[in-house]
Design goal:
There is one protein chain. The chain has helices at about 10-20, 45-55, 65-70, 95-105, 120-125, 135-150, 160-190, 195-205, 210-220, 230-245, 255-265, 280; strands at about 5, 25-30, 40-45, 55-60, 85-90, 110-115, 115-120, 130-135, 150-155. The chain is α/β, with parallel strands linked by helices. It has two domains: about 5-160, Rossmann fold, CATH 3.40.50; about 165-280, N-(1-d-carboxylethyl)-l-norvaline Dehydrogenase, domain 2 (Orthogonal Bundle), CATH 1.10.1040.10. Helix 1 links the parallel strand 1 and strand 2. The chain starts with a strand and ends with a helix.
Length: about 280
Amino acid sequence: MALGFIGLGNLGRAVAQRLTDMNEELVVYNRTREKVEDLGYKIAKSPKELIEKCDIVILCLFESDAVENIFNMENGLLEADLEGKTIIDLTTNHFKQVLNFHNIIDERGGEYLESPIFGSVAPALQGQVTIVTSGKKETFDSCKVVLEKIGKEIFYLKEPGKASKMKLINNLCLGSFMATIAECSALGDACDISRSTLLEILGVGGGQSLVLKAKTQKLLEEDYSPHFSNNAIYKDLHTLQDLAYSMNQPLYTAAIPKELFGKMKKDGKGEEDFCSIVQLFKD
């Protein structure tokens, strides 16, 4: 049976392409139908129609509010009979809202796997992302074969909400590394050190990281087409601060990167790749 897929933004398209490359048949739904008509997939008219055709539906949306909309809209997922249906949610969700998703799908007889992706477009196309999943163990076990077609490293954290919290913690590293690499790049430019040489040295020195490997070419070419946007990392770091606040936990190193990405959003550059933060330091 075909897999259902909802959310064909930058990351969603990459994941969908990966599944297609792995010989999976997809039926898709996208809020703006015109954006997916040229992708070659069968297109459902609504989330309800999609889940009626597919036993497994994958969500890859920007935030929890978008997930709620897919659930509750006219002809949304919750209007369908969910008995025997599984929703794999790759969205980076809010740690509180995601608990409701577990509960509401369970109440309707369906299965819900909270499965945020760690990685962006390039590794997603190659099946090299990491996925952390929370939900029922039997559901995870039955869906692992699908997850392994998307990601290289798969982790299971049973308790609902933990996968989303882990994703936010991971993105503290991601945002902090990117801000530091961007500032290093701008400072190197000011010191008249060629950026290619600077990034090469950082890549074998203190800057070694997946972030640097992923963004070196984009920084050299000043290519800010989005793989992971300023809007997305700003949203995630804000949610991370919500998490820390709810725990009465000081969070020292998240604040400055978050505000830097917020400045990019305010400047109208929210849809650019988050490596474009280098422009702040050059200005």
